Amino acid sequence: MEALSIASLRSIRRRIFSWYRKNKRDLPWRQTRDPYRIWISEVMLQQTRVTAVIPYYQRFLDRFPDVDALRSARDHDLLAAWAGLGYYSRARNLQKAANQIGELGGFPRDYPSIRALSGVGDYTAAAIASIAFDLPHAVLDGNVVRVLSRFTAENGNVDSTVVRTELRAVADSLIDPQRPGEFNQGLMELGATVCLPKQPQCLLCPLACDCRALQSGRQNELPVKSTRPGPIDVEIQLLVIERAGTILAWKRPVESRRLAGFWELPEPAQVPRARVESRIAKFRHTIVNTNYSYHVFRASLVRAPAQFQWLSKDKLHEFPLSTAAKKALAYIEMR
């Protein structure tokens, strides 16, 4: 894409600002310039929908209001506060980064230092740097990639490094150096609410008159992306075994590749001597491209294997339960 004139850049920025101020969603992390709170929100929003993050955000901050609180958090409490958000390595990286921030004597105020924090990539570093410190670093998340690929009518695969580099250069050229945080948020909001993956609302877009994809009628064809593998279906049986106000569960080891440190309900193969009594429920849970079908049964057991533990039903909220375990136990409460 050829360089835009100064007049065109000013016009684009003005329209983005005007549209954003009138149409932005009222989200809790937009009420602050505190880098700690912005950082927490951006990490939570990685691969997680806004609507899913909102109820977790303030609860997490109430429990860990600052870097010191996060540094001193027990693994058990940290995972319990994060339980349900998924991608739990994010929570552990938050604590690693909190330790780094503590060693630095405060939250870093330049892009390279922010980027060096555990779990912080290019996008997250740019978001924090621009929103908290007004540093002119353009963000390039999925929403912005979609906006810019249509804006420039990019024909290449947006998952490729070459195309990403080109789109980053476009983002860098567009960002307003005086108000980079607001501009970044405006572009992200545009992709999240107007320049949608399917059926983009072009009549509402402040960039419609400049959008090359719209001009060529290709807005529904772009961006070009890699073909993703089809979904995988997996069926799992879970057993709810109760005894005197407790539930039988097991804890995933710290070296587990998935959900390390979380508590799970047993599967029949783990407790072969359990007597299955009745079916309680069936539910589905999707993680990335895997669709899990859980079949939940009530069962009884005389003696539990050594690796299992009886958890008090009254204190289950204190334990980091997996989402599957939470969903299964919710059916017990409804009965």
- The total number of structural domains is 2
Helices, by number, come to: 13
The CATH C-level name of the largest domain is Mainly Alpha
Count of extended strands: 6
Task: Report how far apart the termini are.
Answer: 61 Å
Order of helices and strands: HHHHHHHHHHHHEEEEEEH
CATH architecture of the largest domain: Orthogonal Bundle
**Which class best fits the helix and strand makeup?**
alpha+beta
- CATH superfamily placement of the largest domain: Hypothetical protein, domain 2
Q: State the major sheet.
A: 6 strands, mixed
Q: Any idea what the radius of gyration is?
A: 24 Å
Using the alpha-carbon principal axes, give the shape.
elongated
- Percentage of residues in strands: 5-15%
Q: Predict the CATH topology of the largest domain.
A: Endonuclease III, domain 1
Low-confidence stretches: none
Residue-averaged pLDDT: 94
State the helical fraction.
40-55%
Describe it for me?
With 335 residues, the chain is of the alpha+beta class. 42% of the residues lie in helices and 15% in strands. Helix 2 runs antiparallel to helix 8 (122-133), helix 8 (122-133) packs across helix 11 and helix 9 (142-151) crosses helix 11 (180-193). The longest helix is centred in the N-terminal third of the chain and has 18 residues, at 6-23. The chain is elongated and about 80 Å long.
